[in-house]
Amino acid sequence: MISDKPHHLRQQYDVVVTGAGPAGMAAAIGASEAGAAHVLIIDREREAGGILQQCIHQGFGMHHFGEELTGPEYAQRFLAQVEAHGIDIITDTFVDVARSDKTLKLMSAHEGVRVISAGAVVLATGARERTRGAIRLPGTRPSGIYTAGVAQRFVNMLGCLPGTRAVILGSGDIGLIMARRLALEGVEVVGVYEIMPHPNGLNRNIVHCLHDFDIPLHLSTTVVEVHGRDRLESVTVAPVDDQRVPIMAQAAQIPCDTLLLAIGLIPERELADGLRLRMDTVTGGPLVSSTMETSQDGIYACGNGVHIHDLVDFVTQESLLAGHSAGDSLFGRRPPVDNVRMIPGENVVSCVPHTISTDREHTVYLRVRRALDKCAIRFGEIYEKKLRYVFPAETVTVRLTPRFLARFPGGALRIDILPRQGARGDEEAA
């Protein structure tokens, strides 16, 4: 583990990165590789690495490293690179204010209140979990109700079991992984209840975390009430109709002492809001260009703080780009202004980046509304590519080449993912 603070905190840095998770570390490395001499990473936790430190399961790194790693192993590889690049890192420190002139006010126990400035800033603030209040879950307020990430920290880092009989609300990946983790520790996992008609986690986690442990997954079903005075005693679950309204006539009460909430992540946007960045109302994160620059010049954003990813490898890929772009901007190496606005169309919820340029290659990340088999992705009227399937929980990643984009003069490019109707076109875009 590298030192938690630089020997001397500088007044001026070339690039400052807020967040020392996978996005922040990759962005800092990208900035250093682009030529930034003085790079600083700031994180509010006591140790760098972010959420990776508590993810002791395997499944990280297949795309980036070509091998399967645990979360701490993945983090440690990047921490070693951060140290090799001579990047400063300061932990247990809060960024109180970030301004559009790229000055930041920091607060920490060991440095007090400091104001530093940067040539470029990268927001790599990650995401937070939705809590009980986000879904207005009725009932009493007993102990025993946790977000899945908090329960993961209790078990994996503090060695504490949250209870003995658990219900999991939501089929997000952390919830699925915790279903397996609790089962391995001897906790009885009654089931996973998902209000949507489809799971919200990766298919591999459905198989390895639920099917392999005979943990039932109940789709189109939700928790409608919690019961208990001091400690959770039971929950009431009910199926929902097509409008996701509970069918109370079919409700059932399930005894349990633990309820884990795996109901989604939300980008951390306090700094982005303070900077008055233009935001995407769908993803909850800032609007970004093809270089991951926000609506404020010299301020970049990446990772789950922009949009929620399903794989940390995609976070790394996107964040390296953001860091490289921030570093390049210091030397005036800016690509031509984006001339294409990406428009999510049929069955496409979101698209990042929000604008691209026709003169260079881009990786585009898409999320879909509903699952489809034997479908096709269509870019306007000029290109269509076959896809085996799409699934709301999994990112659709498409690589657009200059050769393909040369067919498009600019303006707005609509993206649709539709049932296949004789998909046409070559394979050059992806």
Write a brief structural summary:
With 430 residues, the chain is an alpha/beta fold. It is built from 9 helices and 27 strands.
Which helices and strands occur, and which strands form pairs?
Layout: E1 12-18, H1 22-33, E2 39-42, E3 58-60, E4 69-70, H2 71-84, E5 88-90, E6 93-98, E7 103-108, E8 112-123, E9 127-129, H3 132-135, E10 145-147, H4 148-157, E11 165-169, H5 173-184, E12 188-194, H6 203-210, E13 217-219, E14 221-227, E15 234-239, E16 252-255, E17 258-261, E18 265-267, H7 270-274, E19 299-301, H8 312-330, E20 340-344, E21 348-352, E22 355-356, E23 362-368, E24 372-379, E25 383-390, E26 396-400, H9 402-405, E27 411-419
Parallel strand pairs: 1-2, 1-8, 2-5, 8-19, 10-17, 11-12, 11-17, 12-13, 20-27
Antiparallel strand pairs: 3-4, 6-7, 7-8, 9-18, 14-15, 15-16, 20-22, 21-23, 23-26, 24-25, 24-27
Helix content: 10-25%
**Structural category:** alpha/beta
Mean pLDDT level: 93
Our measurement of the CA-to-CA distance between the termini, rounded to an integer number of angstroms, reads 38 Å
Q: In percent terms, what proportion of residues is strand?
A: 25-35%
Low-confidence stretches: 423-430
The helix tally amounts to 9
Main sheet record: 7 strands, mixed
Q: Write down the overall geometry.
A: globular
Rounded Rg: 22 Å
Number of strands: 27
